[in-house]
Model the fold of this input.
Amino acid sequence: MNNGNKGICATGVSLRVWIVLATLCVVNVAAHLLVMPGLPAQIPTHWGANGAVNEWGPSWMASALGVLPLVFLGVFYVVPRVDPKGEAYRTSGKFYQGFVIAFTLFMCAMSWLGELTVWGTVPATGTVNLLVSGAVGLLFIGIGNYLPRVKQNYTLGIKTPWALADPENWRRTQRFGGACFMVLGLGLIVMGVAGSALSSEIVAAVIAALAFGSAGAAYVYSYLLWRKSQ
Done:
């Protein structure tokens, strides 16, 4: 195998996938620029936890948001090459490739929320929280399902000091953390469905409790595994 192929494999993502995603991101930016002249001066830029628009901004912000998927894709391309344990991206199966594809598609779709709201395709209240929470929830469920397959690295996964120091602790922490992520994902989907009937404060509090609770539980579990091994 030549050095070029090694470089491609080291990212955990095939060259063809990188090319397709980069092309998609460039087309996404071009499409935002194409429709920008027809947008009103102010467009929705932020939605509350209950799905209602609570901030507006200049129309050019839609194009700025359209650039974000391309920026993240560049970061994802670089990360495996600078991670000291970059080999893990190649040996963790298709996890990283699936994550990069799903996240890029998600970001491209989310970048159009402002325009779609202006055009009336997405209602200004009650729908965005369902779409976003549902999509993010599915993303977390997918990550949680594959997290136990992720090998030790310094970027992806649940990176506690004890997991990074011990391969067995890492394996068990990712397995437990994966279950926590799946619970978080289900909770986000439920909040997406029920969010329009609750206040923004309640929805935000529940989501924060789910997020911090999942992360905290995995962190404590990793520590207890280390204590047990001493």
